[in-house]
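Lesson 9: reading folded outputs for more than one chain in a single document. The general rule is that every protein is listed as its sequence immediately followed by its structure tokens, and records are never interleaved. Here is the first one.
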Amino acid sequence: MILATGYTPGDDWLPEPARVDRPRRTLTGLPGLFVAGMPQYGGRGSDTLAGVWKDATTIAQHIINRP
């Protein structure tokens, strides 16, 4: 997991399918790639240290429930 802080979204490093095809919260269009800490990929408040835990919990659940 990469957690960084900044003033603008830094998702330009993500491949195009990951930015466009997002089936659900924290998931990307690329298998095994999750995004936490960015409201456009997660939930409201994801960009705060107090709120990123919700994204982390969602990602952990996705990983646990994978076949």
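And here is the second record, again sequence then tokens.
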Amino acid sequence: MTVPRRNHAPREPTFPYRGRVINEPVAPESSAPDSTDPERTPRRRAALIYNPVKLEADELRPVLEAAEAEAGWEPSLWLETTEEDPGAGQAAEALAEGADVVIAAGGDGTVRVVAEALRGSGVPLALLPSGTGNLLARNLDLTLDDAETSLRTALSGTDRPIDMALIEIRGDDGRTRRHAYLVMAGLGLDAKMLANTDDDLKAKAGWLAYVKAIGLALRDKNQLRLRYRLDGKGVRSMRAHTLMIGNCGSLPANILLLPDAAVDDGEFDIVVLRPEGFIGWVQIMTKIFWENGVLRRTTAGRRLMGLTKEVRALNYLKGRELVVSLSRAEQIQLDGDPFGEAKSFRTWVDPSSLLVRVPADD
């Protein structure tokens, strides 16, 4: 595929709140209602978009009602996702209804779809983690198993601008699909693993369901053969087992895959896995689990890391736009969900384009 050369990635509407928490009070205009008169003060309203497979609405309703009463908010708008519409239509309805915050209650797929619809709107996204991975919540250090705390944050927290990544995927049929993602996109091991995962087993066993799928993926000896251009520089060719592009760096089980990734730095981090046999996998596991997972967390450990050598089996890159052309169509995943096959793709960062509600003391 021939990709037209660009000097810069196309700019989408973004927010001017790069890299800071938005919590400054806005001075009211002279025509604003008297804030001392409770009857004239406009009350805020949330919209809750929830996946009924992941969440029991009857159990959550009294918890949300208590949070609404504590914060002085109107009763929330409840919007249920469906197989046909996993969140985009519901998010559009929430915006049309003038919601002050949209709460996504579901797995990573629900969060990704709702966030994509809220991108550039100025309406913050709040998270009520209800899935297996909860990738964005983990990377933002948000509460995972406490609905009361999550809902209190949704109504009384502050807003943090974060980056989103956009991607245009072209398949063998020549059609291009455009999506957004929050955490990671990947080709190779992780995409094949997700394609091989049994959904019923995942629902019952959580992340243990991926063990069998990883074994099947590791037995696949086919390498990715690709050409890529990073930030408009020269085209390069490589062979790799796995390619992952991350807006965030952490995975479940406290695995730090991309140690330098930050959700609000205007760039994404890229990791390329190129193991050559068993020794190559040992080098990769040492880097990810020992150096990233243990040594990097202490000052003494970071000094020891300075003495270790880089290995060919694992390489890191960083940039704002990546264009990739593959020798054949390969499985691709976004935020832990399979997205079919890609023959080529272009992905870029949209800086500070999404507001996420975080605890006020952050």
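What the second record shows: The longest helix spans residues 277-292.
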